[in-house]
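Changelog note: in this version the structure field was regenerated for every chain. One regenerated record is shown below for reference.
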Amino acid sequence: METARLIERLERILPRYDRAAPRYTSYPTAPVWTDAYGPDDLLADLARPEQDPSAPLSLYVHVPFCRSLCHFCACNRVITHDAELPERYLDTLRREVDAIRAALPVERAATQQHWGGGTPTHLSPDQARRLFASVTDAFPMSPGAEVSIEVDPRVTTEAHVDALRECGFGRLSMGVQDFDPRVQEAIHRIQPVETTAALAEGARRAGFTSVNLDLIYGLPYQSVESFRSTLDAVLAIAPERIALYAYAHVTWVAKQQRGFERKDLPDPPTRLRILLLAIERLLDAGYLFIGLDHFARPEDELARALADRTLRRNFMGHTTQAGVDLLGFGPSAISELGASYAQSHRELPAWHAAVAERGVATLRGHRLSPDDLERRWLISTLICLGELSAEDYRARFGGELACEHAAELEALAPAAEDGLVEIGTDGSLTVTPLGRLLVRNLAMVFDRHLPSPADGRPVFSRAV
């Protein structure tokens, strides 16, 4: 469908779908979790005796520190120049890692490790080496493991790149958001194209095999033409992956975003045009649309996972690690252990105190029921693969999709009329190219735990 017709069609149906919707990095989503699940529950789930020593692990480390506040950001971060905070963080994280390793009844190697933030390269190169040793002493990395990190080009030095490569990192993810100077000033993140390009070039020269750039559409002062220039600069850098996120205006979480409401946030039709422009440019440049907010080169692992139906989604976004337990370390980090989620205290002092007391810092979590597990599969499969097969459902759950989820299929009928999804007589679903842009709305139909807005405030960001 040509772009002009697609825009016209989307604008016609957009009012029905421009609503708050989860990003579905988990199911049930985090607002549903409660403190009824605590440290004892996590330790019990870690100690479950049926674990296979050969079953791999995925590791996530949250480094919360940043030197300055980006005004669009709703992540868990600590703005600081205090050199003592990272040192104390490293001591506590080592205790947390050791406690979680001690709770596991068998030794398990890791096939994936990712550091997020915050800004992991807020740590010095030597501190990064120390952190990596703390994690890998307890959880050795398997040969060929995927080791990745989020960095800020404004604070990441050549010494950082060398230290990370020495540790074994092979994928570098850089926040860009937008290269337009007016947008950068509004979001309080001045980052020249040259700085970003130089880091990408330096990482490749050091031996990194993959560079990812993060973009955000819907920021203050963005226009179709300004974002076209940003895309020109991004394509010149030629990253292996690109993440294109919708700006999440969540002022009840990130109070500094309230100023954006006076700084010309683009309206929904403009956001939509920016999104469609980006998709068109990226596809023309040879990237594959992996889904939701990810693009990758055809030879990338994400593209291969999509092709062989092993793509999945977790708290790091789309991932190749299907069915792998995830252990999270650091404040606000989340662990996913088969049928349970556990999230640590968000605030740094509370995390320090909890680890000192128990070794783990679980604040809340959720243990999934059989219905949760079924709906997690439905939602994840729909989002990652763009389809639901009645045959696959029958093989996995022993029932008929059309019967067991008749109410949900009926609720999807308007979306089918709008051309977002095709529904087979057996209940099988196929998301159309148009529907892939609004797949969060389609997934919501299967969500039995959708929380109600608290005090009139939305819980999630807008779907478009």
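Spot check on this record: The first helix runs from residue 3 to 17. The CA atoms of residues 278 and 363 lie 39 Å apart.
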